[in-house]
Structure formats: structure tokens, C-alpha cells
Amino acid sequence: MTVSAIEFSRLGPPKLRLYGMRCATCDVISPWWEKFHCYKCGGDDLTEVFLDGRGTLTNYTVVYYPPRDFLGQEPYVVGHITMDEGVLLPAPVVDTALEDVQVGTRVKATLRRMKLGHEGDIYYSQKFVIDEDAGQ
Amino acid sequence: MRVGVLGIGKTPHKIQHSKSLRDLIVEAGRGALADAGVSPSDIQMLYVGNVGSVGFNYENSTGLMAAHHLGVVPAGAVRVEAACGTGAWALHLGVVAITSGLYDTVMVVGAEKMNDLATVEATSIIAQAADSKEEYFSGLTFPSGVALTARKYMQVYGLTEEDLAHTAVKNHHYGARNPYAHLRFECTVEEVMKSAKVADPLKLYEVCPMTDAGSALVLCREEILRDQPDKPQVYVTASQMATGTWYASTDTLEDAYRLFNEPAKRAYAMSGVTADDIDVAEIYNSFSIQEPLGIEGLGFAAPGEGWRGAEDGSTWMDGKVAVNLSGGLLCKGHPLGATGATQAVDIIEQLRGTAPEGIQSQDPEIGITACRGGPGAVGAIHIYQRIEGE
Amino acid sequence: MAEISRYGAYLPKYRVSLGDVQKFFGRPGRPRSRTLSIPALDEDALTMAYEAADQALGDHRAPGAIIAVSLSPPFGLRKLSATLARALGLSEETVPYDISGHPGSLSDAFALAESLVVSVGSVLVVASDYVVSFDERVCDTLAAGGAAAFLITESGGFARLGASSRFSEEIYDVWFLAREREPRYRLEVLFDASLKATSQAIKGLEKTSGEPTATYRHVAASQPHPQVLRGLGKAGVSGDQLAHTSFVGEIGNLGTASLGVALALSFDHVVAGERVLAVSYGAGEAVAQAIEIISPPPALGLEDKIPGEAIDLGTYYLWTRGRQAEPH
How many domains does chain A have? Predict the structure, then answer.
């Protein structure tokens, strides 16, 4: 997936930190791409809220055939992480043996490179690592 | 509602390096025209279902290109796109065109040419049928997004990978007997389990291949088909569409159920039949888990039980409802824009009694197609009936 | 006066055997480092800086300034410190500064932080590098990656930044020309020049502080190569003083982060009242600085992270080959 440098600039800064969108009507936090519409209640007043970065892996898969941007990283874990704030986010879980990951593992967000645009921009975002402080 | 199926046509489903997108469109379209006994000038509107020609083939405006090469100019033509539900959407628009009363005879074509690019590139383009900008940014692909659903299903209902493997076994049994299918080998549960991992827990035999194909239908007003009693009297009697969640992250098993169940309820009501009346079904299964989910959504089994029919025979040819006698998308492949239209062609062949011998069921009268698209974003239900003259 | 209040360090998890790399390129001789610490495909100087800084900051997200030190920032023409500040969620009041120049720049950053805390209260100093070197040249440059971060405050810290002494001479040992992709080097010049510069700086510190070199519990030094550490021996540093802070022979050259990681290793083994000698070197310049321990900080256990996880040559090739054409 290539995007232009302008698009990167538009999407870039928020990706350096993990955030969700809080609905003013029902208070539910949606993933960060729900800028327009709360999928829970249909409300249209959503604001950014930064997340703490800790959550629980509630589902995951292991990718063996990656998209171009992830070539060389396979096999890698992509999980659905239910953040402590309640919102569910998809993200890779890195720096772990495949056997050490299961539903229920506590994870925390860290900064990693996600992909390169064709105009030479580096897109950073959050990947997750097993939360060492969680005593699991 | 009764919309006449005047003609059907399709190309083989496989990697076809010698054929371009326009070759596939013309081959399928001319097959339908010949079967219908009409000429291009009889077509009053053309709907062309195609998802990725901009990415796969570096060309756009597929509907207009098709109109030229099929010779339907000066009739109207347009390209239809709704992710993997595209072919069914093109069919729906054809049905709407007829039932509106504006048109007497229309053509629906679905086509996709996926194999001009390497797998990695093609995968990235297919991902654009989901939210590749934002959600798939996280390293998800279509197979891995659906794999998450598979794991959820297994978790909620306490199933094993072996339980799900039976679906692939059934599809491959019939795919091996379908000369138009891309993959034509049988397999056992053990072989499914041993096949290469694609996105855990989905394995190679549980995901569809990338295929080049086209399929087409000529639809007409009920009276036009009625007035030709020597033609097979198969009609589209329901066409209901729905949308669902665009994001795998917010797609629950309940959403997957609703995606088919809501339009299916309306379709059953529209056509005056129930789930129990259905003889044959083509249920979208680019990934094996989607077949059990579809079986449940259509009301053929209770939630959590949709997988069982592949094991106990009740969704095989002589079972309660024969599901995916074509070999499903697992064997036919999933040429994105063609799939929904091919499902219709395959069910119509069943109702006509003209399907290849090894996969023709015994005298079916009522069929259903269920197509889906995106992570859980498109639901498309069509019902077809063979209705002999009254 | 300025003190170190908190610190953090990050080493990538993965290690490639330098012996395997040497064999691949047909380089004779004993490998000068056992392994190289290799950032994964999705890591770079920014992400490693983030890890170290995140550990150093804890809940303190409003330092008065952040100084980023790196010779391998992912982007030119933009501030690594500014991007890092955004990623860390620092206050908008935190002023970002980038310091570059040479592998010893961390010492310069400490000096600047010392002055800056007087006006802004606290300064986060982060050094992070994924040393740039390609093909068989990594067998000489021992190119590896890592990061370290230090929160500098006026008071209330666990260690005090003390007196320092500098030495500087014009020398060509490791250098780039303008926009060249990787450095040129003369190892024999490096060994001689670093010995000369660091001895002079250490002697200079002895003179100004009155404290003999032998009285430091640990010596934490820039270490682009094991030979540089052996040179310190000739400058009056004992093997005992380097025992806990030497890592270049295990995991390679961490560039500007080298001194920071050495310091972090020393902090796991100090008691109140002891002193650590920080010695930086780069391009003919050395700084020797005394660091006095006020109270031992919570241990990071960085020593346990040195061995890491082995990756094979194929993985190393896959992870580094592409980076040569891409920013890292």
C-alpha cells in the first residue's frame, strides 16, 4: 500500500501515539479511524482520547503471507487487543515466540516502524509487546 | 417478483495468462447471449461487476470498455463495485432494472483478472477491499482478518480445527468433479490439517486460490421468458442486499449472522419460501469458516452448528440442503467481481439440470445464493426457482 | 550542578554471530566481537530511543527540554528530538534539541543539559544509534544498535554530574564526507588517537579534580572497538573498573549510545559514595567526566539483556540488506 507524502503528513502525527475516539453521546471509545460516526450509538460527535497503552490480547492470528510492507517479518502475530479503556484495536505483537502468545496475554504498546511510503516517508505506529510488568 | 433468466455463461475458473480482462468479459458475455438466443443489440443495459481492475490491470472504466467490446453500444453500461459482493450486486442491479419496468432485457457480467501481478502485489490490492488505509495498516490481510473470526468461532463454540476442516473436504469433493473449477483435487481431513499454514488457524486448503474468470447472465421480464416455454423456466424470485461492519475489529459473530440473516428473512418473505424449501445453495466461502457462518445466517442450522453438515452429510448432495456443489470458492477461486455472478450461474445450472454430472443434484426446484463482501460489509441474498408454466 | 534522576536503556533483542558474517564475506582473522546487536526490521534509532526514553521517564512526561543524540536518525532535515517528543506524549512546553557531530556527543549533551536545567528544571537526554555500515565493513566497524536515556534535574537525583575535562585534536580516524552513506575509517589511527585523547582527558580530570583515576569504582567508556578499551588500560584504567561496563566484545559498537549503555550497566553495581568515570571519544575528541553516586538507583538488569536471541545469517541478511537502500 503506497500513499503520498502529503497523505502521510495528514495521518502521521496522530500515529506516533495510541489514541481512540470517544463518543460524546454514549462515552464509548471506538478505534482511531472512527472519526465520523460512533458505530455503537450512531452519534457524530467524537473526540480523540490518548490511551494508556496497556491491554489484553483477546484474539490473534499468525500471518504467514504478509502484505508488501511486512515482508521479512513473517510469521508474525496480529492480535485484537482490548485496551484497558475498553476499545478493541488490531495490532502486531512482536518480540515474542509464537508459543508465548495466547488469548488473555497482557500486552503493552511500543513504537515501531510500520511501513514506507513510495515517496520515502516512514510511517511509525504502535506494535505491542508482552507486558513484562504484568507477572504472567 | 419473477425476473426471467434468459441466458447464462461463464469461463473456466483458473489462472489464464493468455487471456486479458476484456477476453474474459467477452467470453462470458457471448456465452450468455448465445444461451439466451439474443444479440448484443437486444441488451438495453449492461452491468459489469469488477473490483480491482485499477490495481490488477492498470485500467479503469471497466463497464464502458465492456460495452464497446461486447457490442452493446449505444445501450447504457456501468461498472459495479461492492468488494467481494460485486457480482451479486451487479445481479441485484439487473433485477432492479427489470422490476423497475424501465428495461425488458439486461445483461449482467462479473469478471476479474487477478493473475497479472505477483501474489504479494495482488494481496495488497485485495486488501483495499477492506480498510487498507487504517485497519490493515496493522499488518492484517484478508486471510488473517478472517482467521480472527475463525478463532473466535472455535473459542465460543468449543470447536477444533478438525471440526472446521470438514468444510474444505466437502468443497474439494465437489470441486474435483467440476470441470470449471480452479482446484480439482479431493482431500481428507488429515490432508487439510497438514496443508501449509496461511494465517493461523486457516490453512492452505481452507483458503481460496487467486483466479481469473468471468460469468454472465441475461435477465428479462417474466413474460419474455414465459413466452418461450422451450427455454428452461428459471426465475429470480428474491434479491435482498445489506451492509455490515466495514472493520474486522468491530465484526462480531452476531454481526456475521445478521449480515446474511436480515436480508435472507426479507428474501424468504419476498419469494414466499422458507429455509426448509431450499434444495441447493451457493454460499460464499473464500475462507472455509464463512460457509458455517453462512449456513447459520440462512437458517439452515443453529448458531455454532453450521459446520456440522459437512461432517454428517446434511449439507452434501443428498443431504437436507446441498451447499456449494460447485466446490465453492475454495475450489473455484474467488475472482472478486465474478464470484457473485458465478454463484448465480451455478445455481441456475442446478435448477435447469445442466450442471456437470458429478455435481448435479436430483431435480432441485429452489436455490439460494448468499454472497458477502469486505470483512463483513456486504450481504447479498438471491433466491431462484424453477417455475413450470401455470 | 546537575543530577541524574532516572535512566533507561534499550538493546534490541536479536544477535547475529559476527563469526558467521565474517565467514560469509571471506574475512580472515578472529571476529572482534562475538555477536552484533541487530535491530529488527521494524526498529530504528527513533524506536530504540523511544524504548529507552519511555523507561527513563516513567510517569514524568513534562521535562523542560529533550536532547536527542544520534548519528543515524531515520530522517535528515528534521529533528529526531521533536518526533521523539511527540511519540512520548511530552508536554508541548518541552523544547526539543538535536545534538549530533561525533560518537562522543553524549558527553556534550550532558554538558548542555547541566546548563539548561538551571532554566528549565529537567532535561531528558537520549542517545540512540543503529550504526551505519555495509557489507564486510561491519567486520571492522562492529556496527550494532542500542539506546540509552537519562533524566537530568537540578537536584533530587541518584547521581551527580561532576567535573569534566576535554581533549581535542584534528585527526582522521572515522569520518564521512558530507552526504556519503557510510563512514570511512582507519582502525589503526582510531586506536592510537583514542588512546591519546582519552589518556589526556583522564589525566586532565585527575589534575582539576584532584581525584586519582584508580579511585573510580567503574569506568564507563565509549567503545567502538575492544582495542579502544584495551587502550584505556594504558591510560591507567584497571580491568576491574571495566569489568561491568564492557560490552563491545559481546554485542558490538552502539555509536553514540555506547557511553550511555556503559553508564547504565555501571548503575546496576554502585553504592552510595562511589564514583563512576564517564569517558567519551569521537573523532579526536575525548571528554572525561566524574559522576558521583548519591544513592544506588533501582536496578535495570541490563546485563541480562546482553546475550539476547540468536538470529541466523539469512535473517541478518534480510534485515540489513534492504536497509542499505532505505533510511534506518
Answer: 1
Cβ distance B131 to A91 less than 8 Å, yes or no, reads no
Report which of B189, B172, B190, B188 is spatially closest to residue B332, judged by C-alpha positions. B172
Residue burial C278-292, b: 16+ Cβ < 10 Å; e: rest: bbbbbbbbbbbbbbb
Domain assignment present for C75: yes
Given CB atoms, is A129 within the 8 Å cutoff of chain B? Answer: no
In a domain, A101, yes or no: yes
Question: Identity (one letter) of the amino acid at C306?
Answer: I
What does the pLDDT read at residue A68? 79
Chain A residues with CB-CB distance to C318 below 8 A: 72
Cβ neighbors of C54 (< 8 A, separation 6 or more) are A110, C8, C88
Size of interface A-C (CB pairs under 8 A): 48
E strand map for chain B? 3-10, 45-49, 76-80, 105-113, 197-199, 202-203, 212-221, 234-243, 280-283, 322-323, 366-373, 378-386
- Give the pLDDT of residue A118: 67
Number of domains in chain C: 2
Per-residue model confidence as pLDDT tens digits over A63-74: 998 887 888 889
Decide if C247 contacts C265 (C-beta within 8 A): yes
Domain that holds residue C132: 2-157+307-324
Range of the domain at A70: 53-131
Question: Are B48 and B78 within 8 A, CB to CB?
Answer: yes
Asked whether the beta carbons of residue A113 and residue C89 sit closer than 8 angstroms, the reply is: no
As a whole number of angstroms, the longest Cα–Cα distance in chain B is 58
Domains detected in chain B: 3-118+210-226 (3.40.47.10)
Residues C45 and C171 placed together within one structural domain of the fold: no
ipTM, 2 dp? 0.89
Position A10 in a domain: no
From the list A53, A50, A31, A52, the residue with the least C-alpha distance to A40 is A31
A89 touches chain B (CB under 8 A): yes
Best residue in A76, A78, A125 for a mutation probing chain B (most B CBs within 10 Å): A78
Asked if B151's CB is within 8 angstroms of A61's CB, the reply is yes
- Read off the pLDDT of residues B195-247 as tens digits, 9 standing for 90 and up: 999 999 999 999 999 999 999 999 999 999 999 999 999 999 999 999 998 88
Predicted confidence at residue B390, as pLDDT, reads 59
Interface test with A, best of B134, B137, B152, B246 (most A CBs within 10 A): B137
pLDDT at B367: 98
What is the reported pLDDT for A110?
Answer: 95
User: Do residues A61 and B147 make contact, with C-beta atoms less than 8 angstroms apart?
Assistant: yes
Say if strands C218-221 and C275-282 run parallel, antiparallel, or are unpaired: parallel
Q: What averages of pLDDT result for each successive group of 10 residues across chain C (328 residues)?
A: 96 97 94 97 95 94 96 91 94 94 95 97 97 92 97 97 97 89 93 96 96 97 96 93 98 98 97 98 97 96 96 92 54
Name the neighbours of B, counting chains with at least 3 Cβ pairs within 8 A. A
Residue-level pLDDT at C327: 44
